[in-house]
């Protein structure tokens, strides 16, 4: 008898193993955003700092949504160390470019997850991923726009801060249809 869906006594499905990895990727992204926010904060760029501190909270929530799902799916959860964090940046552009690279990487990770869920006929898993896939489209677009504006501001950090203040407000109403977190959500 073989079972390809979910966890069995023979071990975790590929999808669940990748989801456990994704908890680490989301915590890494959360820490990386704090490093970027602190860099802006230390350089008196409060609007960019605000956006990136907020982004860090959202990544932390993404990790905790996956933790919630794993617990509900009876997958043994271990909380991982985050990966390497970059702290040495020369320019604002370097920071935003790193954020965009990170979001594109996370998008690829979710594509890999989606492929695994489909290969293993894990319909519940596929459904769980839908919100994250949509969220990644939004986050890549957000960082891509910000990078374009950084380039357009041509080094004028006042213009850049004005744009961020005007066009990148905190979204406090939460995200529609977002999966629940383990414990309270903070983003
Ligand atoms: Fe995320
Ligand atoms: Fe993200």
From TrEMBL:
Residues that bind Fe cation: 26, 59, 62, 103, 136
Entry's Gene Ontology molecular function annotations: ferric iron binding; ferrous iron binding; ferroxidase activity
SUPFAM superfamilies per record: Ferritin-like
GO biological process, one term: intracellular iron ion homeostasis
Gene3D superfamilies, per the entry: 1.20.1260.10
Keyword annotations from UniProtKB, A to Z: Iron, Iron storage, Metal-binding, Oxidoreductase
Keyword Metal-binding: yes
Descriptive protein name: Ferritin
Pfam families (alphabetical): Ferritin (PF00210)
Superkingdom assignment: Bacteria
Residues annotated as domain Ferritin-like diiron: 9-154
Gene Ontology cellular-component terms listed: cytosol
Keyword Hydrolase belongs to the record: no
Protein species of origin: Nocardiopsis mwathae
